[in-house]
Fold this protein.
Amino acid sequence: MNNSAKSSPDDLLLDYLDGKLEGTSLQSLKQQLEQSPALQTRLEELRLIHLHLSSARLESPSNDFVDRVMKNLSASSAAASALSPRNGLLLIAGILVAGGILAFMISTGTFDNANGVIALEKAQPATKYIQYTLPSLPLKGKVILDSILGISILLCLVVLDRTVLRPLFQKKTAF
Amino acid sequence: MISLQEEHALIDRILAGDQGAYARLVDNYKSYAYTIALKVLNTRPEAEEAAQDAFIKAYRYLKNFNRQARFSTWLYRIVVNTAISYRRKNPHQLASIEHHDRAVEEGGGMENRDRQVFLTRAIDNLNDADRLAIQLYYIKEFSLEEVAEITGQNMNTLKVRVHRARQRLADELKRLLKEEALTL
């Protein structure tokens, strides 16, 4: 918005209010203002806007603002130091390798015969106080290992979210 | 206010692990950060939360801060982006209530107060980018270049926004004055 002769009247008036007009441009505008009541009215409208906006004051946050930032900072630093993105990725890789080996072993039938029974009726302290006999619980190795595999995948997703995705998203939204 | 040298010394201390030194920076810039967040969000509790969040983000990414730029400009940009993301999460807030109250508090004659309230509403009705540009431009100490950096906009685009917003407001005011004249 320089003192160009091609500027619109509004541009010139706004530059004038911003104190950016000088020399011949300023003189020329003053002459135009003297001759044009319409231009004077427009200047008055723009001046009211300028004054209203200029009256904006700096706002103050709450008195404990700094303390709260520092407190939150300590809390977030403690959480951030728990696991870095690099360590998070290494942990995920470790879990995936272990899970892959486990899945391979399950698929080849290694654990098909790994069944057993938990014989609760043989537990002496229990029978001492409880009158009726406890049932035996069947133990299927394949089911347990499938559960472990499921938990590992879930754990991978949680670690990925906490250590990689969330910090990455926060970084993107910050800048 | 702290000098540029002092500021760099504080940043060095913070990067060396002295978290306590950050309190000085927060104290120095809290009012500007809060005011900027308030301009975007228009509600005090949310603006306070966004400003705090921005300070925590700035601390976390301080090692990425390029000292060729001013820390304040870098920080305010984080404040703007954080506040905008807060606004996206909660777009249906009653934006103008607090500013409206302030305009009423500011006093003056009834006619003047009505005009202040009207102008505050007219500012709220501007689009987000124009409103932020014009409000930051009128926070003293911010040059057009700084506002451009803070909002991440091109200088020329920003100039256009500031001029256009003022023209729109003046047109709105003209309409109001015409209506006032007709009711007399």
